[in-house]
Amino acid sequence: MQTRHTLLERVRDRADENSWSEFDKIYRPYIYKVIRRMNFTHEEAEDLSQNILVTLWEKIPEFKHNFRTGAFRTWLCTIIRNRAINIITKNKRRASKLTIENEDALTPYIQTSQNDLELIAKEEWAAHITALAWKKIEVEFDENIRKAFKMSLDNVPYEDISAQLGLKVNSIYVYKNKIKKRLTEIVRLLKEQYV
User: Fold this and answer.
1) Is CB count within 10 Å lower at the N or C end of the chain?
2) Quick one: DSSP state of residue 140?
3) Rounded to a whole number, what is the distance in angstroms from the first to the last CA of the chain?
4) Looking at the whole model, is its pTM more than 0.85?
5) Contact 141/179 with Cβ under 8 angstroms?
């Protein structure tokens, strides 16, 4: 996996389809989750995510990153917020033309402040990086070991995990620690690459 800064340089070339595909794979799910946290429906979030990716495709050659931690995500969040505000404003204008009875049905959105958006973006980024790390390591462990790990995270008693999966209780502790250690390593590496 290329470092994010290298990827940002490669996607400046709009004809580099492989780089754009990689960029899309990494950032589309993150953009979608941030938008959903702003109370947009699934369909609206899908459309808005696509709209934001087109905007990024157009504007990324202009982006000047100075290798500061979080600079790209701050810029990306500004684009997300501005696009969301445009949609909310458009919907409010549309709702103001309707009768009072219909207005409530068209305004399920919240005005997200910049601070709220930054908090949402930070939380979603941590979850996104963890999901990417899990995808990378899940092939390294047997299915029952992965199930045991997930069940332990859900606070299922180890004796119940043992009975359900046919694993020894002591083994569950060992497997949990192995996965946790590996997951922590990959999360750290991804944070270094994509911050």
Assistant:
1) N
2) G
3) 14
4) no
5) yes
Supply the DSSP symbol for 13: S
Q: Give dist(CA 151, CA 166) in Å, integer.
A: 13
- AA letter at 167: L
Alpha carbons within 13 angstroms on the beta-carbon side of residue 18 total 3
Q: What angle, 0 to 180 degrees and rounded to 10, lies between the N-to-C axes of helices 169-193 and 143-153?
A: 90
Domain boundaries of the chain, sorted by first residue: 4-126, 141-195
Percent helix, strand, coil in the chain, to 5, is 80, 0, 20
Q: How many Cβ atoms from other residues are within 10 Å of residue 24's Cβ?
A: 17
Q: What is the pLDDT of residues 110-145, one digit of tens each?
A: 455 566 777 888 888 888 889 989 998 989 999 999
pLDDT of residue 98: 55
Q: At what angle do helices 17-37 and 114-137 cross, to 10 degrees?
A: 130
CATH code: domain 4-126 is 1.10.1740.10
